[in-house]
Structure formats: C-alpha cells, structure tokens
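In response to a reviewer's request, we include the raw inputs and outputs for one of the modeled complexes. The two entities were modeled together in a single run.
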Amino acid sequence: MKFTLSWLKRHLDTSATVDEIAEALTDLGLEVEGIENPLEKLRPFTIAKVKSAVQHPDADRLRVCVVETDEGEKQIVCGAPNARAGITVVLAKPGDYVPGIDVTLSVGKIRGLESHGMMASERELELSDEHDGIIELPSGEVGQSFGDWMAVNRPEKVDPVIEIAITPNRGDALGVRGIARDLAARGLGKLKPCNVAPVEASFASPLKVSIDDDTADGCQVFYGRLIRGVKNGPSPDWLQAQLRAIGLRPISFLVDVTNYFTYDQNRPLHVFDADKVKGNLRVHRAKGGERIVALDDKEYTLDAGMIAISDQTGVESIAGIMGGAVTGCTEETVNVFVESAYWDPVQIATTGRKLKIHSDARYRFERGVDPAFTPDGLEHAVRMIVDHAGGEASEVVVAGAVPNVSRAYRLDPERVQSLVGMEISESEQRQTLTALGFRLEGTLAHVPSWRSDVQGEADLVEEVARIASLTKLVGRPMARALPGVPKAILTASQVRAAAARRTAAALGYNECVTYSFIDQAAAALFGGGDDASKLENPISSDMSHMRPDLLPGLLRAAARNQARGFMDLALFEVGHAFHGGEPEEQHLQVSGILVGRTGPKDVHGGSRSVDLFDAKADAEAILAAIGAPAKAQILRNGAGWWHPGRHGQICLGPKKVLGVFGELHPRVLREMDIKGAAVAFTIWPDEVPQPKTKTATRPALIASEFQAVERDFAFVTDASVEALTLVNAAAGADKALIADVRVFDEFVGGSLGEGKKSLAITVRLQPTEGTLKEADIEAVSAKIIEKVSKATGGVLRG
Amino acid sequence: MDDLKSKYLGLIAAAADEAAIEDVRLGALGKKGEISLKMRELGGMSPEERQVAGPALNALKDEINSALAAKKAALADTALDERLRGEWLDVTLPARGRRTGTIHPISQVTEEVTAIFADMGFAVAEGPQIDSDWYNFDALNIPGHHPARAEMDTFYMHRAEGDNRPPHVLRTHTSPVQIRTMEKHGAPIRIIAPGRVYRADYDQTHTPMFHQVEGLAIDRDISMANLKWCLEEFVKAYFEVDHVDLRFRASHFPFTEPSAEVDIRCSWEGGTLKVGEGDDWLEILGSGMVHPKVLQNAGVDPNEWQGFAFGMGIDRIAMLKYGIPDLRAFFDSDLRWLRHYGFAALDVPTLHGGLSK
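The model returned the following structure tokens for the whole complex.
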C-alpha cells in the first residue's frame, strides 16, 4: 500500500516529519517498506539570481551569466533561451549530482570560458519533462534551499511517497484514512473530519437494482446513483498526480474517482456507463458457464455460485472483483451509474482465487471493507463527480440493507497488563480505543464498523498494546518451570538421532540435508512414487513426490558431486522418510552411502574400492552407539534396490529389522547415474528396542584370573554355508568356556573343489575355575568340531 | 688376587664382541675358570684364612660379573646404534588417509538452540511434516478463506478420487506442533519444536523446504514481557554476546494476539554481521501471545492459561551466525560446502563448554 504525505495530510492534521511518521507506522504494525522522498535529491540545490547575461563571444546560442549565489558572484555559461538578467533560478554547483542528466558537476570550460555550475531545468531535477528553459522562480532568496522553497510553494511536486506492508487483518489500513487514524491514536496529529454534503437528488433513477434471494448472503447491500450529463475526460492535475505517485495510471475522471476512493477510504466502487446497460441490474449467483470480458480485456467463465451483476443481455460485472468491459466508462460516457456495494469477504476470496484475478477491489473486499460506509462512500464519489464533471444525480437506489456488524467486548484493563506485561493505565487504554473509533460504554468497547478483524477481548489487548508501542516493552525474567538444575529434556528417540548423527560423522561421513521431495522416477526405484505420496502442486517435476527413503536423495547428491569431480564420497542423512500421505506415515531413518574408493590412492597402498563390509561396519557402529543389542541376525531378502545376493538385514527376529546394509542394485546405480562402486546402509533407530529398565549402574566386571587360550580351526563346508551359522555353532559348544569366536579366513574353491570353501575361526577359551589342561582343551575342541559339523556339514580341514 | 682382578677387567674392556665376552667369562667364572678354581680352594683353608679369602673372592666374582654385564649391554647398544644408522624413512610422506566427517549446520544450530532452551526448561516436541489442514491452519485460527492461507504458498498433497477430505498439506510452519503437543500434554507447558517446513517458493532467498523452530510457553501468568526476556536471553546466548537490543514491532499473526515481529540491533560493517551494536535492525522472528482461540482449539482453557509462542528460521539464524551466504546451498550437498561450513563430529554444543569454537 502506497500513499503520499500530502494525501495523508488530507486526513491527518500533523506537523510530524516523514521520518517520524515512518517510525511510528512501523512500530504500529504498518511496516514501512520504502520511502521515496523527492526532496532528498533536491537537497544540494540553492536559489540564485542572474545579475547579467551577455552573448558568448564564440557561440551564438550560449550566454555568459553572472549569477549571485550564496558563495558570491559566479560566472556560468548557459544555453537556455530564457537565461537573462533579473530572473530567480535554481543553482547546481560543481560537486552536486544532477539526477536528470545523471552527472556530478565540475568546473567546466565552454568554448573557452569557465562555467562554475549550472542553472537547472525541471527535467534536469526530475520535477517534470519540461526542458524548454531553465526554471524561473516567482520568489525565493539567494542562498535559500530549493527543496525548502518547493516544500512550501509546490508541495505536490515533492510529495514523499511511503510504501507500507499491510498484514491481512488490517483491511481498514488499505485506505489512507485508516492509516491516519492509527497515527492520530498514537499522538502524531489529529484526524480531520471527513464529511460530505450529499448531492441533491433531481430525479428517480430509471435504472433499478435487485438482489436475488439466494444471493443476499453474498451481497448484503447495494447502493447506486445515476448521474446524467457528466463530462468525462482527464482528471484534474491533483488527482492525476496522486494516482501517479502511488503507481496507478490515470484513465479517465470517472474511473479515477473509483480508484481514488479505493485508496482513500478503502472503499472500492464501480462505475457503469448507464447507456450501455440494458434494463435493470440484477445481483445473482451464476449458473455456471457465463462468460464476461472484464475491464482487463480478458475473458472469464463463471462457475456456478459465483456472484455476478447482470442486465438483460447478460453478465456485466464480476461482483466486487472486476467490472465488465462492455458497460465500462469511457471518455464519451455522459450518463454514469455509480455502484457502492458490500460483498461477503469469503465469497470474494473464493471467486477471486478461482478466477485468478488480482484486483484492488478483490484485495480489499476479502480483507474487510467497512460495510457501514457503503452509502457514504457513494455520496463522496457522487459529490466529487458532480463537482468536477457536472451533471445531475438521481435518488439513491438501494437493494438489501447495510449489515449490522455491531458488537462489543469487555475491556479488562488488568488482563491487558497481565498479558502484555506493561503498565498501561486504564484511562490510557480507554483513550487509545476511543481514538481508534471504539465506543466505550462502561467496560464494554463497541467495535467500529471498519474493524472486522476485532473479534474478541484479545483483539482489544492487541490494539492497546500496539498503540502504546511494543518497542517500549521491557523484558521481565521468567522463572524456571522447576527450580534447581534443569532436567534432561530430550526423548530417547531424540537422543538416538543425535548419537547416530555424531557417530556417522565420527566415522567419516559428511552429513547432508536433502529435500524431502524427489522426482517420481527416483522415488519409484525405492518403493515410492505412488499417488498417495504425490504433491498436488509441486514446484518442479524433480520435486514431485515425498521421499520413500533417504537413499535416493543421497544418491542424487552423490551424482551431483561426481559431476563436480568428487568421485569418492561418504554421505549420510538423518531424517524422515514417508511411506504414505497421512500425517502418521513418516518414519525416522539414518542412511549412509559410500561411493568409489575408501580414499584417494596413496603411498601406503591403502586405497581400495568400498565394499559392503565397510557399510556393515558403519551400520553396526551406529547401531551400537544407539544402544542396539550386540548380537543380531543377518537375514537376506531385503528391498529390491539392494543387490540381491550382497546385502544383509540386521534383525532381531524375522519381523524386527533394525537396519540394512549392502551393495546397491547395479540397475539402481545406473539409473541414478552413479559411477564406481557404491554401498549403503539404512538404520531405523525407532525400531531398536528401548532398554527395559534404565539404570546408570553397570553389572559387576567378571575378569577371570586364569589364562585364556586361543585355538584355531579350519572347516571345509559347502560354499553356501554362512559364516554366522558356523560361528554360532562353535560358540554353542560350551557357552561358559567359549568367550569369543572370530572368523579370520575364508578360502573358496581352488584345491577344495567346486562349491566348497574353507572357513577358519579362532576360538577363545576363558576358564573361570582353574587353568585349562590339555585334556580340557581337547574335549572342548572335539565338541566344537562336532557342533559345527552338525550345523553346517563342515569337516575339519586336514 | 688384585692381579686376577686387573687381568680380567682388562680382558673385558678389550673384548670386541659377544663371543669374546663369553670366552672371558668362561676363563674367569666357568667351571674351570681361574676364579672358580680359587673358590674351590677355599675348602682346604683354615677357618681364619677362609674368613679373609672368602669375602674377597666373592667380591671379585661380583665385580667381574657386573663388568661382564655392563660390557654386554654396551656392546648391544653399539650394535643397535649401528643397525639404526641404516634405518631411515622419509617421514615427510603423507600419513595414512582417514576420512573426516562433518555435521550439517542445520543439525548443529538445532542442537545449539536446544541447549539454550533446555536450560530454560523447554522440552523438544515433534510433529508430522504432512499434516491436516486443521492442524496447519484452522486450529491456528486461519480459516479456509483467510488471506494468510493464500499468502503461505502451501504445498498440498494429492487426494485420490472419491476422497473428499480437504487435502493434507506439507506443514507451512512448525506451529501445528503447538496444537498437537498441547492436546497431548495440556498446560503448563514449555516446548520448542524444530523441524522442516515447506512453502512453494524458490528464488535467491527462498527454498521450498526450510527449517523453523517453534517456541511455546503456557502458564498462568506468562506475559509478553516474559517473551521479550526469554528471547533476549536466547539471542545473547546464541550469538554469544554480552548485550543485545531487541525491538518488538506490532504485527499480525492469526494465532497470536498481540503479535510482534522481533528485530535485533546489528551492524553490517564490511559485510559481516555484528549483533548487539550498530544502527541497523534485523528481523529474526515472529512472536506473540497465544490467541485464546488457539488455546481453546488445543483443549486448554484460555481463562486459566496464557502464554507466548514464537517461530524462528533455523537456516536463517545459522546463516547469520556463521556467515553462510546462500540458503539454496544448504540443500545441495556440495562436498566442498559440507566440509567448509560443517562441524566436527565431537563439536557438541553445550552451555558449559560454549556453543561454538
């Protein structure tokens, strides 16, 4: 919302400066977004007088002037035809910036003669397009600031323009008068009265208006007057200047009047060329399918239920949003029907959104226009039209009745203080509300008709606090909810997410935060991409679906980095993935990918391709960090984006999957454009069971004083036997004695023959009751061999 | 006996290697060694003679033994020195590679914010990112036709044919967590709710996803002055400065009343932000007293309870504190960016150890 200082002063009697006004506006909640003050660029220029002007010896069109300035007499060479002795001029000195020619002056030499500055034209100072000669002022003293002179003598030419942001609740501030009222309540001046003497009615309008019964809720009241014999044409200068200053294009007087009151009083109006209206006007709901070319020359098709104003021939206006082109006023209009109506905000918002029309009228009606001002707005407009364009006005045509929006809320001064935490006396509170137009009756505050946003006691609090100035609010310490040392506040799940994140970073992974939405193709590769997780209005096709998993986002990130020449990557993310489109269908994941090699090739020969055991180690480390049990099953048959034979699910039982690791399916990698090896893991932290009892105390350490013994065994088994089966079998041979079983070698094929492999294990025996004797070791070894053989069919390698 | 001593000490000193030392030892202390033989002679002596010769012989034996051991050690040292002279590595070669991971600034700053508010007794609440329009809008006093809805650039979820519920939305702010948490826990309550939020907007300074942290404190007598104090304390702690000026400007949010935008005093000298000094104001958050209707919608009696709420951009305060220029880069996962702006795994922000290094 833009307005000029002079426009504001039509409603506000104030001596406040632009800066004071701007500061107050921002503080009041009408945030100033910009100020354009033409005086700023006039600041350097002063008034001077031409003492003499003689012909330049070497140039026909130039005159050499002696100019009396605040710095004494100066010689200035000037080409203006009106440069002559005795005139009062505007002087720009060397060093001054002249905006109209975008030049900073210096002492010049023109055809051999020095020139100490210039005398400016209006165009050179961006005051108008006038450039036939230099400015001649009718008054002014040598040395006086030109800006000051303009402010006094031509205020409309140096009118500062203020632009403010209006929050959606403040419809009333979409009119200059509403802004003035706020400033007056703050004490920055006095609100001027705004009365109008209605134009006398000279005839009954032949044009009548009706509102259909089913439309009364959308259009409660419609006022209109017909004016005969107006002379339309360009608006007077002051009106054109005001409209231009706020960025509106003057069109013709009749149209400009409607725009003026839209911005002046937040009162949108419409003018019909009465000669083009056939029969009477009827406000009704569209049946659907009606077409209208609106004032923006675009054709719109109405949906059933939208409100239209029609004459005998059809729809002539999209009610409250935009008039029709056919019945619009032109320079030739002589009979005009002025409409001032009140439209339901929800109705307007819905229709406006559907038709995608952004008009000043829609903007205002949906944010709240003063219904009680409907007839007054009409009278203001009719008065202005008749006063300037002549004509005679009809009696007022009315359909419906001004809705009764009167309501009152109790002002509780103590509650105001308690909520705001500021000492604001009761009398000040009452005074504030009164200044804003509330009528106080005991403790009841009657809400003014233009404040549709005030809907309860809390709104009274806001008004009082706003006018009192929240800038003055002084912080007041808030006691801790509980005295003493603060307790831990994170939930177990939050602690896990943090631990997983820090562990992954400690393992050398870089944390990414990728978008929660991803393209359909990538989502589909990871079990998503269906309609349930689709966005209705995605911002682009590569962000069309909620991610079903974190891996596609990480792989896309890896591909982007590979394109930048970073081939070896360790990336992870902690975040939610979505298994549907309902609020509860999100779950926390920790995913990591390793791409390329373990590191750049190096002098120690340590660089190699990443493999699934890297991913497994990291997955296990993270699971350990978040408190997962040390012993888990490794099962296969994970999701389809894993390499079918090279992945494992870390499980507690077949239904309880804590995580998964492995190589990604080569097809997935190809489609995601990943080069080189890529392995990954995903962990579902919330699947890890919480400890049953929470105690900081550890169980006592049992450290046997007897020497532990290690024995190695190598078994030949079928190649399909899994190491874990063999390890578990060996460990089960004597659970008390066997402390640990580790696989230290795997050898496939070769001399063992097709389909066979050798697995070598180290078994650590930890006696607790006495030193092991050879016979004890022999006995347990035999048991191990027997158990392993039974579980795997393996035989001890000879 | 002195002759023996000087003879063998001389031989020991002259021995050039381990074998020579062994020869000397055998010559002196071996079974048929000179000193061993002397020892054997002790048996034939009278007790008086033995009393003199015995200790002397033992002392000689000990002395020779020590000299042998010392010589042996000296020879070993010499041999080791000799070997080490040939052992040399180029220690300027690079060390074995080790990957260094990083924490994303969003995570780090979220932990910083959490640490500060935890000290003031705020717990961390969470809520769904896909939410119903009731929680995202209606419950927060933003009815269907409210212009604020249209201004929010909301992402809507697809609705299957025949499903006539209003479409779910990607939450446009973290405020729905207020409602969900109050419904569950009632009042009094103090929570923050950090998380992802979504708006259909993408340009130089906007990304369709970003992060907010919501704050909510409800009790019997919490005022806007408490809100100001709480935010002042937060800003001081977060930006790690001793003093800060906060400016509350009246504003409007449908879910708070009164509402205020909050600016901090700062300077931008030389393109770097300094909080707490200068003449500029920087908007950092929106806040206000929770609207009675919002309390009611969450099942909390507004006649009994009151309090404040605020919402702040995590990405934004991360950019301000750490001088990160471009929001869009947060979500691009450029390895160079992750390494440059990321944090070490063990840089856990704490109040006692400091939030940043």
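As requested, we also summarize the result in words. The first strand of chain A starts at residue 2 and ends at 4. The domain at 2-37+160-191 of chain A is CATH 3.30.56.10 (Phenylalanyl-tRNA Synthetase; Chain B, domain 1).
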